[in-house]
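Board notes, transcribed. Complex of a protein with 3-hydroxy-3-methylglutaryl-coenzyme A.
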Amino acid sequence: MATSVLCRVQSLRKDLFLSVSRCSVLLKNNYLVKSNETDECSLEFLEGDNEGIAVISMNRPKAKNSLGKVFLSQFQGCINNVKFEKNIRVLIIRSMVPGVFCAGADLKERAKMTNEEVGPFVAGLRQSVTDLSNIPMPTIAAIDGYALGGGLEMSLACDMRTASSNAKMGLVETKRGIIPGGGGTQRLTRVVGPALAKELIYTARMFDGHEAAKLGVVNHSVDQNDAGDAAYQRAVELALEITPNGPVALRMAKMAISKGSDVDLTSGMGFEECGYAQVIPTKDRIEGMKSFIEKRTPVYKGE
Ligand SMILES: CC(C)(COP(=O)([O-])OP(=O)([O-])OC[C@H]1O[C@@H](n2cnc3c(N)ncnc32)[C@H](O)[C@@H]1OP(=O)([O-])[O-])[C@@H](O)C(=O)NCCC(=O)NCCSC(=O)C[C@@](C)(O)CC(=O)[O-]
């Protein structure tokens, strides 16, 4: 069973407050537990066998999860809250809208903006996607449908991606007379290299989940199931391979790989050294060795 949460009581933002105030809430462990199905983005912490996994669910059916002002504000709220969760070891981003992950920029809302408004709005969108990429724990995007423009950019800001066979992905911005603005020019290039990124962006080509795996855009592709959530199920499986491992180690590995990928090898080794220094004083490091010697499963506490 999942516990849905929106945000910490102490950090309620006005827009989130308005959203929360419309739904039934109760206090639990310092969180406002929500049950408002009209929220465009919500955060939940899985329990039982899936404990340690947080899920951001996108749910804006009428506009195919496109990135409008309200959506982005709620998405940012989810990110702001999950990043401080010491007990969360993996974050999954999924859609609750059948057949679509995210349709990118909200083109109808954008059409009403003046030229002066567009630049700052896209800068905010870019920052939200960057905030997602900077979340300290491992992240997985579960792509069970269309992931276009900003939708694919959002998934590229995650550490890993799973996709279903019916997923359709693409940085289609040039078809709309713009360029990727949520980090796609940079992150797709880092994932597949400049030649392929250029081809995909210049052509605005769309590709399915299996093609995406062949191109290296996603880690795993799976045939879609009757429920339409095969990529999400694969993401949970992947998360469950990660959750038993040392939480501090996971975060330090992410930091070293992410920061190291942007610099030369020698500088990258510096990030590895910094990350390693953080795990040395942890109780989890001792537990890792002790459990091996005692021939039992380690119990990590993130300390
Ligand atoms: C996703 C499919 C294939 C589904 O295709 P479909 O299943 O045939 O559904 P549909 O096209 O009938 O869409 C259903 C409803 O969702 C709406 N809708 C759907 N997408 C959007 C959208 N983006 N913005 C606003 N509304 C959208 C659409 O207008 C329609 O509303 P209705 O006509 O029923 O009132 C199709 O709808 C589609 O092609 N959508 C547009 C995809 C697209 O071009 N996205 C923008 C990319 S540019 C970008 O993301 C820019 C960025 C982020 O990098 C930088 C920046 O912010 O500028």
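The first helix runs from residue 14 to 21. Residues 2-242 form a domain with the 2-enoyl-CoA Hydratase; Chain A, domain 1 fold (CATH 3.90.226.10).
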